[in-house]
């Protein structure tokens, strides 16, 4: 079942890259980062629907929402009469994707690995699928240059910074980001270390663990603006990093999407860090 | 409404009305959805002819029809199971969740989702796509048998102990589920959240092949319980005096519920309220005789779930609401209204 399904994607992708089909005129995307890429490539006129993780840019609000990418409805997507659905590995249920493919929708599932390379590859893949290869190459060149410039900056540090990454999303309240998360991948991408050691995945925030982490910077990813209320988290407020302004509160899709705004996300994280060790060394 | 001297509806018109409601719900279920289909096309597909929309046949035959059938079966099984348990325990609060069936089934399913890549990897390779439904089914039946064993002493089964055992098993299964949730990765967490909310959104013929035999078996065995359950209403000691073997009756009742609900949870996740609300409603309208309550609960449970599902898939179209959520949203206030009305009467 799963193999047959994988075969579908592979055939779909190989046909697409061979551009046997005409370019899609009615496109549905289900993944915030992929939707962003479509807009950055100037192909948004083809979009007829997006999923609920696609909230950027703001124009996406005018498009029909087909639900959450992990619970894509078959009829809901088909009702928009798309000729192509571009989504990521996170899309589910597999059965509905397979049904869509059988109903004549070209279904492409792109890798959702959290690396800079994968982010660039995603842009190229979307470009190829939409017949906008030139635009995609140009965008990749720009994003790649931005990433390289930031990495040069982060390479000049004279200390190993530690970042405490907090996720305030959905009804899961406030959670610390441990290993095996997009947050961790972003922290390590800019050469920093995750201050929440010994945690795997996103786990409910332990107030003592926050105090014990003693990070150089605090990063808070919110799924909706204003979701994190500092008044409810005196431990975070007590942190030296928070008090000295080494903090960043930003949208979770911006920080964790690994889309075309990856360089901006990296830069924002890097800017939140103290420039030199001396500043942080003043910690009591 | 027409009511007889006891304030109840007579059975024949009630059945006719319910049959008509089911027909309406069935039409709504086959006829509505996010994808717009012309009525002509639906009729053509049902008649086996070529429709003007090339995907019409797929939408109707592969998506809506199995979804309707699965929804009806699950609703019917939950309704009957609730009626059986309420009769057996002589307790209007009993529902399939109470003796641990749902908790056991969901614990097993969540274990497959979370541990499928590690501790239960062998099981997943062995059972393939059946790994999750089969585990849920085994978990549901297993917990019922466990509760049964605990409550049985020297050939006697104490119903009160069974109820308490069910509550304790629920608590343990709930804690184990919580523990698994804690260790689940972000991705697993999201897939199990959707599973615990219950869904018919992925229904296909595969699910029917797996779940329908058990659910139909449970539905067919249920009528046999009607007269003994009536006797239970008079007290457990009366059951034996009336010539029924108490132990056998209890065993069959538990087996029917374990079999049916285990299979229902396996294919559709956790759908609440049907098992609790439907038998109550039937008793209010038609009286407490199980010869009426059991079959009508099945019919009404099925109809209600099909109707709720038809609403759930169009109300936020093109997206879809989880049916479990929809059910509680409709069932909760409805049940409260029923209670308040009874107080006045």
Automatic annotation (TrEMBL), chain B:
Q: Which CDD domains match?
A: TM_ABC_iron-siderophores_like
Q: Which SUPFAM superfamilies does the UniProt entry name for this protein?
A: ABC transporter involved in vitamin B12 uptake, BtuC
Annotated signal sequence is none
> What's a Gene Ontology MF term here?
transmembrane transporter activity
**Any matching Pfam family:** FecCD
Task: Describe its membrane topology.
Answer: Multi-pass membrane protein
Q: Could you tell me the superkingdom of the organism this chain comes from?
A: Bacteria
Q: Which residues cross the membrane?
A: 68-89, 101-124, 130-150, 162-183, 203-222, 253-280, 292-315, 321-340
Q: Which GO terms describe its cellular component?
A: plasma membrane
**InterPro entries with a match to the protein in the record:** ABC_BtuC-like, ABC_transptr_permease_BtuC
Q: Give the primary localization class.
A: membrane
Q: Which GO terms describe its biological process?
A: siderophore-iron import into cell
What keywords tag this UniProt record? Answer: Cell membrane, Membrane, Transmembrane, Transmembrane helix, Transport
* Coiled-coil spans in chain: none
Compartments, as annotated in UniProt:
Cell membrane
Which family, according to UniProt?
A: Belongs to the binding-protein-dependent transport system permease family. FecCD subfamily.
Q: What is this protein called?
A: Iron complex transport system permease protein
From what organism does this protein derive?
Marinobacter nauticus
Task: State the organism's lineage.
Answer: Bacteria, Pseudomonadati, Pseudomonadota, Gammaproteobacteria, Pseudomonadales
């Amino acid at each position: 079942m799963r193999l047959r399904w994988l075969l579908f994607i592979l055939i779909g992708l190989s046909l697409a890259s061979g551009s046997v089909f005409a370019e899609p005129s009615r496109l549905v995307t289900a993944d915030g980062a992929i939707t962003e890429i479509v807009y950055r490539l100037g192909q948004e006129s083809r979009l007829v629907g997006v999923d609920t993780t696609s909230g950027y840019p703001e124009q996406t609000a005018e498009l029909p929402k087909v639900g959450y990418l992990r619970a894509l409805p078959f009829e809901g997507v088909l009702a928009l009469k798309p000729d192509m659905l571009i989504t990521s590995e996170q899309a589910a249920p597999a059965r509905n994707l397979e049904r869509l493919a059988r109903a004549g929708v070209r279904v492409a599932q792109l890798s959702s690995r959290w690396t800079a390379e994968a982010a660039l590859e995603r842009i190229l893949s979307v470009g190829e699928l939409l017949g906008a290869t030139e635009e995609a190459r140009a965008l990749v060149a720009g994003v790649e240059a931005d990433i390289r410039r930031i990495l040069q900056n982060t390479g000049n540090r004279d200390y190993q910074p530690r970042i405490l990454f907090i996720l305030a999303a959905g009804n899961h309240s406030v959670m610390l980001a441990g290993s095996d998360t997009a947050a961790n991948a972003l922290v390590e991408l800019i050469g920093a270390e995750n201050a929440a050691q010994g945690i795997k995945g996103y786990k409910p925030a332990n107030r003592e663990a926050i105090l014990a982490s003693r990070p150089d910077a605090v990063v808070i990813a919110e799924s909706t603006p204003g979701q994190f209320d500092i008044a409810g988290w005196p431990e975070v407020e007590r942190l030296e990093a928070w008090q000295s302004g080494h903090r960043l509160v930003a949208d979770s899709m911006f920080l964790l999407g690994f889309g075309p705004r990856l360089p901006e996300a990296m830069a924002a994280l890097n800017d939140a860090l103290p420039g030199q060790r001396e500043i942080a060394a003043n910690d009591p | 409404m027409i009511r007889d001297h006891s304030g109840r509806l007579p059975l024949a018109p009630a059945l006719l009305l319910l049959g008509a409601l089911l027909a309406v719900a069935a039409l709504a279920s086959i006829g509505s959805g996010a994808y717009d289909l012309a009525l002509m096309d639906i009729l053509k597909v049902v008649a086996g002819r070529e429709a003007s929309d090339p995907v019409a046949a797929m939408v109707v035959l592969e998506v809506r029809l199995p979804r309707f059938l699965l929804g009806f079966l699950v609703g019917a099984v939950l309704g009957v199971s609730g009626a059986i348990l309420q009769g057996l325990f002589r307790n209007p609060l009993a529902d399939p969740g109470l003796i641990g069936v749902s908790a056991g089934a969901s614990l097993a399913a969540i274990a497959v989702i979370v541990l499928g890549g590690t501790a239960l990897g062998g099981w997943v390779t062995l059972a393939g796509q059946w790994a999750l439904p089969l585990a849920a089914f085994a978990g549901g039946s297993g917990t019922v048998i466990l509760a049964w064993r605990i409550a049985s002493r020297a050939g006697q089964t104490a119903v009160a102990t069974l109820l308490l055992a069910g509550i304790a098993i629920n608590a343990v299964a709930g804690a184990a589920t919580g523990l698994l949730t804690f260790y689940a990765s972000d991705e697993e967490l999201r897939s199990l959240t959707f599973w615990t909310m219950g869904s018919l959104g992925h229904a296909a013929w595969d699910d029917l092949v797996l779940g329908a035999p058990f659910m139909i078996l449970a539905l067919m065995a249920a009528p046999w319980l009607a007269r003994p359950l009536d006797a239970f209403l008079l007290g457990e000691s009366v059951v034996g005096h009336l010539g029924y073997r108490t132990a056998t009756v209890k065993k069959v009742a538990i087996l029917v519920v374990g079999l049916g609900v285990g299979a229902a949870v396996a294919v559709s996740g956790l759908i609440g309220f049907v098992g609790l609300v439907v038998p109550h409603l039937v008793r209010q309208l038609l009286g407490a005789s199980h010869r009426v309550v059991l079959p009508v609960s099945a019919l009404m449970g099925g109809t209600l779930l099909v109707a709720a599902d038809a609403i759930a898939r169009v109300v936020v179209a093109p997206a879809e609401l989880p049916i479990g959520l929809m059910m509680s949203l409709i069932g909760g206030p409805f049940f409260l209204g029923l209670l308040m009305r009874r107080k006045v009467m």
